[in-house]
Fold this sequence. Notes:
Blueprint: H1 8-31, H2 34-39, H3 44-73, H4 79-97, H5 100-108, H6 112-116, H7 133-153
Amino acid sequence: MFADPTGTRAATFAAVFVALYVAHQVADHWVQTQHQADCKGRPGWAGRIACATHVTTYTLTACLALVFLIAGTGLRLDPAGVAVGLTISAVTHYIADRRTPLQRIAAALGSARFYALGAPRPGRDDNPSLGTGAYALDQSWHIAWLFIAALFAA
C-alpha cells in the first residue's frame, strides 16, 4: 500500500498508540470524577452532560499525552491527523460511555449475556466490581478505537 522502508510510520503509529492507551487508562480511572462515572450513562441531559464532561477531560488527557510524547521524542505529527484521531476517539468514547449504545451493539452481536456478566441483580447492590462483562466490552471497544485513532494521528 504505502512504502515505508525505514519503518518510520510503523514506529510513529506504535508511539502514538501507546501514548493514547496510557492516556485512556489515566483518564478513565484517575481523571474521571465519581460523579461522571455514576451519571454518564443515565438518561436525559444530566447523563449527556456528565458523559460530555468526562469525554472532554479524557480528550484533554490524550492531548497532554501526545504533547509529552512530542516533547520527549521530537516526533512530528500532522495536526490534521491528530485532530481526526482525537475526534474519532472522543466520539466513540462518548457512544460507549452512554451505556445503552454499547449494550445494544453487544446484543446485536450476540454478546448480551456476556455484557450482563457480573452485573448486580436488579434491586440489589451485590456485585459492585470492575469485573463485569460490560466493563470488559467497554474497555475493549475503547482500545479498538484507540488503534484506529492512532492510525489517523500517526
